[in-house]
Each structure stands twice: as C-alpha cells, then as structure tokens.
C-alpha cells in the first residue's frame, strides 16, 4: 500500500464517512491473496470514493481520462489508485497495464455501466464489456455491489456487497462478443441480486418498526 494512499485514507477516510455516510451490508471482507474485480452500479461522482473507503485492502479504479487533465486532480487520483482510460476507444497500453495490475493480485473497481445512471430508478444501463473482459482474462474473482442511491451530504446511504463469484464456467472458451454478452448478463444479474437483498433488508426493517 503506497504511502500517499495510506496518509490520504487515514486523514480523509473518516471525514468522508462523516460527511457522506454509507452503511455496508452483506458480504464481510475476508483475506484473499488473488486478483479481484469489484463491479457496481454508478449513480454519482462520489461512487469511487465510497467504494475505496469501504474496503480495507487498497483498491484501484478506472476513471475517464478527462478527469486527469488537471495536473493537481490527476496526481491525487493516481495516488489513490486511479487509472486513466479512454472510455470510447481504450488504448492497448491502457488495457495491458490494467490486466498487469490484476495479474499482480490487486483489487480493481469498475462501474460496468460506463457512465453515471442519471435516471436513478433502480435499473442498470446496458453493461459495457470491459469489466467482463478484464475479469475473464485475469481469472479474477468478482465482487458485486449495489448502491441504493446517489450520495448526499449528511444523508445515510446504503450499499449491499454480494458474495464473490468467478467466471470459471467460461474458462477455456474464446473471448468473443457472444461470450462478452453472456458475462455481462451474469454480472448484471449479480448486481441486481444485491439490489434484491437490500430491498429485503428495508422490508424487514419496516416490519420491525411496526411491532
């Protein structure tokens, strides 16, 4: 874990959780010596910070190259594990370096919708194929996450972290567009399962209040 990352997390992590509190539900983080891809729905610009402060192990994340144009902001993002990528036409070097990171047993956060879902209606936008490709090529385990709503200052939000899964059923196959679509469908299913679990939590909470 980098010194810059450790300092920023130690100083600003608690402040972030104070101003933008998010309650974690579901899977409890366990020690794991392997590559991990975290997939999550995307609702606001705070999502990356919410996820990186929710896991103990340092996480890296993909961010559109435009946000790195400001040298100061870019330096902070890179220090926190940000990786610049062209969302429309990723360069080969960007893909290669990201795969290298995973093969070094790191944790990578990806928002497979590719952009913020401004509707915030509980549904997912069609998933892009990048998250599935990275997880498949690196044979990484995948942790699905669902954020209940966009973060707002001093308003508690909720996230549900699902059980890790992998793509072993597809190993040995050639990565084609058809396979990419199957993987994306499985990822979407797992994220929406987290949503279902979160809804069950809210329902049980309501029942307890009525008693």
Distance between the termini: 47 Å
Q: Which range does the strand content fall in? A: 15-25%
Q: Tell me the helix content.
A: 40-55%
Radius of gyration: 17 Å
Going by CATH, the architecture would be 3-Layer(aba) Sandwich
According to CATH, the fold-level topology is Glycerol-3-phosphate (1)-acyltransferase
Low-confidence stretches: none
Strand order of the largest sheet: 1-7-6-2-5-3-4
Any idea what the shape is?
A: globular
The CATH top-level class label: Alpha Beta
Distinct helical segment count = 6
Give the topology string: H per helix, E per strand.
Answer: HEEHEHEHEHEEH
Largest sheet report: 7 strands, mixed
Under CATH, the homologous superfamily reads Glycerol-3-phosphate (1)-acyltransferase
Number of domains: 1
**Secondary structure category:** alpha/beta
Average pLDDT, rounded to a whole number, is 89
Let me know the number of strands.
7
Verbal overview:
The structure is a single chain. The longest helix has 34 residues, at 177-210. The protein is built from 6 helices and 7 strands. The N and C termini lie far apart (47 Å). The protein has one domain: Glycerol-3-phosphate (1)-acyltransferase, CATH 3.40.1130.10. With 211 residues, the protein is an alpha/beta fold. Strands 1-7-6-2-5-3-4 form a 7-stranded mixed β-sheet.
Blueprint of the fold:
Blueprint: H1 3-19, E1 22-26, E2 36-40, H2 47-52, E3 59-64, H3 71-79, E4 82-85, H4 92-103, E5 107-110, H5 130-138, E6 141-147, E7 157-161, H6 177-210
Helix pairs in contact: 4-5
């Amino acid at each position: 874990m980098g010194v810059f990352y450790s300092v920023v997390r130690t100083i600003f992590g608690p402040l972030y959780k104070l101003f933008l509190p998010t309650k974690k539900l579901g899977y409890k983080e366990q020690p794991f010596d392997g590559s991990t891809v975290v997939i999550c729905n995307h609702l606001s610009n705070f999502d990356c910070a919410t996820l990186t402060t929710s896991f103990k192990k340092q996480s890296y994340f993909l961010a559109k190259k435009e946000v790195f144009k400001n040298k100061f902001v870019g330096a902070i993002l890179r220090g926190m594990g940000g990786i610049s990528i062209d969302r429309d036409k990723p360069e080969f070097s960007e893909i290669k370096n990201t795969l290298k990171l995973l093969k070094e047993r790191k944790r990578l956060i990806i928002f497979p919708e590719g952009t913020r879902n401004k509707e915030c209606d509980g549904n997912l936008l069609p998933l892009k194929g990048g998250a599935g490709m990275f997880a498949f090529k690196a044979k990484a385990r995948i942790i699905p996450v669902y954020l209940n709503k966009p973060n707002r200052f001093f308003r508690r939000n909720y996230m549900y972290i699902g059980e890790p899964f992998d793509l072993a059923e597809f190993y040995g196959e050639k990565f084609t567009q058809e396979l990419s679509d199957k993987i994306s469908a499985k990822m979407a299913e797992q994220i929406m399962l987290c949503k279902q679990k979160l809804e069950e939590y809210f329902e049980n909470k309501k029942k307890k209040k009525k008693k």
